[in-house]
Amino acid sequence: MELLRVEGLNVCYGLSKVLHDVALTVGRGELVSLVGRNGVGKSTTMRGIMGLTPPRAGSILWKGEQILRRSPHRNARAGIGYVPEDRRIFSSLTVWENLDVARLPPRPGQIPWDEDRVFEFFPDLLPFKQREGGLLSGGQQQMLTIGRTLMGNPELLLLDEPSEGVAPIIVAGIEKKIRELKEAGLSIILAEQNLDFVLALSDRCYVLEKGSIVFAGTAQELRANREVQDRYLYI
Ligand SMILES: Nc1ncnc2c1ncn2[C@@H]1O[C@H](COP(=O)(O)OP(=O)(O)OP(=O)(O)O)[C@@H](O)[C@H]1O
């Protein structure tokens, strides 16, 4: 069943248009990636869906309902969770407090997330429960950012470059955790530059270039398409 359908999405920053008619779909339980170099519009697509950067035009159907230009707060309550690239940890709050402030009620049928479940899912965070968020490493902050979003009991997770600024050994751990979330039934949109990471996790991929989608296909199709990789994904 289709969870999200985006069509004709146009987003501008001031006078400059950065997304041109972006269209994508996400099925229930599917992991869909947005791939492309720096500045092609991956974050803007997520911010547009979440309502953080209200789109100029287009359609965003969430479970068949139009949510274009709805507030981020309303979208979060409707089940869309956003994990920003810049993490936005509250650095003076403890890890536990960072989780506590992000709590949103679950939807019917969901097993609710609470602090204990987040620490069970990310055991590496448990020793730092009472530590201030600002004192964590990049990888720990990434786990905390994902954990904080899970506290909102999302059905769709928008994950913006989770491998960015994280040590390679931790990236493998984060990949494993994203896989576990998918296996638990969460739908995910992953924005990434790291192609290996994308191909290891995705069902389908969209490649973006200068704000437009230039390729859409399965992870296997993208893996086999050297031309698209060379043209749009390597520097
Ligand atoms: N707040 C802003 N004001 C003006 N222009 C912006 C703003 N944020 C992003 N842009 C521009 O919009 C374009 C798309 O940026 P976006 O951050 O969506 O790309 P991205 O693919 O996510 O890349 P990155 O990996 O750098 O986040 C870029 O040209 C960027 O410079």
TrEMBL record:
It comes from Oleomonas cavernae. PANTHER family: ABC TRANSPORTER ATP-BINDING PROTEIN (PTHR43820:SF2), HIGH-AFFINITY BRANCHED-CHAIN AMINO ACID TRANSPORT ATP-BINDING PROTEIN LIVF (PTHR43820). SMART domains: AAA. GO terms for molecular function: ATP binding; ATP hydrolysis activity; branched-chain amino acid transmembrane transporter activity. GO terms for biological process: L-amino acid transport. The keyword Membrane does not apply. Coiled coil: none annotated. Keywords: Amino-acid transport, ATP-binding, Nucleotide-binding, Transport. Residues 4-235 form the ABC transporter domain. The lineage of its organism: Bacteria, Pseudomonadati, Pseudomonadota, Alphaproteobacteria, Acetobacterales. This is ABC transporter ATP-binding protein. It comes from the Bacteria. It holds the Pfam family ABC_tran. Belongs to the ABC transporter superfamily.
